[in-house]
Amino acid sequence: MSLYDITLNTLDGKPQSLAAYRGKVVLAVNVASECGFTPQYAGLQKLYADLKGRGLVVLGFPCNQFGGQEPGSATQIETFCQKNYGVTFPLFEKLDVKGPGQAPVYTFLTAKFGEPAWNFHKYLVGKDGQVLQAFSSKVAPDSPELKAAIEAALK
């Protein structure tokens, strides 16, 4: 199994096979609009803008499981992300990242490195569709640790 075997709905409700990202390095992040870490959207967008030409894609997965910090509808989430952070990376439908209703994409992402403890937990997936590393919410998108891991995966 790899990330590429999973299909889920985009924020606008359209099915999207993650096979579309085959051969790319993926940074999968559970996101929320009302979290102390929400300003990380800016850093994630910068990473995406700076590195998409080299093969990085950031995938945002809205989740309301941590403190009810993503209460909005798909339209509200999209408007918030574009208006406040200029987000252009792909966003998907709100989903559960842990527990009995865990979405299949998170069953895959968490198998090796465990479930997120909070919003803006990051999973780095290599070009082969396998999870390479996980980073806690406290690891900012511009942190040397995350940037070094992304650079290594892009080589």
What would a concise description of this structure say?
This protein has 4 helices and 6 strands, in the order βββαβααββα. The protein is α+β, with helices and mostly antiparallel strands. It has helices at residues 40-51, 74-85, 104-113, 144-154, and strands at 7-9, 15-17, 25-31, 56-62, 122-125, 131-135.
Features:
four-stranded mixed beta sheet, single chain, Glutaredoxin, alpha+beta, 155 residues, two-stranded antiparallel sheet
Q: Give the strand tally.
A: 6
Q: How would you state the average pLDDT, rounded?
A: 97
CATH architecture: 3-Layer(aba) Sandwich
Radius of gyration: 14 Å
What is the H level of CATH, i.e. the homologous superfamily? Glutaredoxin
Helix tally equals 4
The parts where pLDDT drops under 50 for at least 5 residues are none
Give the H and E element order: EEEHEHHEEH
CATH class: Alpha Beta
Name the strands of the widest sheet in spatial order.
Answer: 4-3-5-6
Query: Mind describing the biggest β-sheet?
Result: 4 strands, mixed
Helix proportion range = 25-40%
Number of domains: 1
Q: The CATH topology is what?
A: Glutaredoxin
Beta-strand percent range: 15-25%
Span between N and C termini?
A: 23 Å
Overall geometric form: globular
Helix-strand category: alpha+beta
